[in-house]
Design goal:
The chain is built from five helices and three strands, in the order H-E-E-E-H-H-H-H. It is mainly α and about 160 residues long. The chain has one domain (about 1-145). It has a three-stranded mixed sheet, with helices on one face. Helix 1 (about 1-15) crosses helix 2, helix 2 packs antiparallel against helix 4 and helix 4 (about 100-130) crosses helix 5 (about 140-145). The longest helix is centred in the C-terminal third of the chain and has 31 residues, at about 100-130. Bound molecules: zinc ion.
Length: about 160
């Protein structure tokens, strides 16, 4: 499955996240066992590369939901790279301890995922996983999709 996730990532970068395409800092994908409510994490604290870690349970969700999940993690990457190092470090420090920061970060990543055209995939992910978490609610995502202001993409792998 990791091969498929890597393919999804490559396709997403090509079609939805062009600013990541020619970046000298690679984004790797790995699989691990994360804590119960976490499907994936985005890590930027390694020198030389960023890493998206995906929990093994992602094996059991649909392709569309996987696309939604990876698109969301790539949005974290874009948001993170737009920040200066200093501000990035502050946010990394605050994130685990502040519900407000978590909500802000997850909302921003979800919003970007929809804006980049992967709203349906993100909604599919949220519906399959069934937890609302800190990001946008399913209703909010649906409202954004139905506004017709954003493209609707999927990924063929
Ligand atoms: Zn997130």
């Amino acid at each position: 499955m990791i091969q498929q996730l890597r393919k999804i990532k490559r396709e997403l970068v090509k079609s939805g996240y062009p600013e990541l395409r020619f970046s000298p800092r690679p984004i790797y994908i790995s699989m691990s066992t994360l804590d119960e409510e976490t499907a994936a994490t985005f890590g930027n604290d390694t020198p030389g590369y960023d890493i998206i870690t995906v929990d093994h349970f992602v094996d059991t969700i649909s392709l569309e939901a996987r696309v939604g999940l990876i698109a969301h993690e790539l949005a974290h990457c874009v948001i993170d790279r737009r920040r200066g190092q200093h501000w990035g470090a502050i946010m990394d420090f605050l994130y685990p301890n502040s519900k407000t920061i978590k909500r802000y970060e997850e909302n921003s990543a979800d919003r970007m995922t929809v804006e980049r055209g992967y709203g349906k995939c993100l909604l599919q992910f949220k519906q399959e996983v069934g937890e609302e978490g800190y990001g946008l609610t399913n209703t909010e995502i649906l409202r954004m999709i139905e506004s017709g202001r954003y493209p609707l993409y999927s990924v063929r792998v």
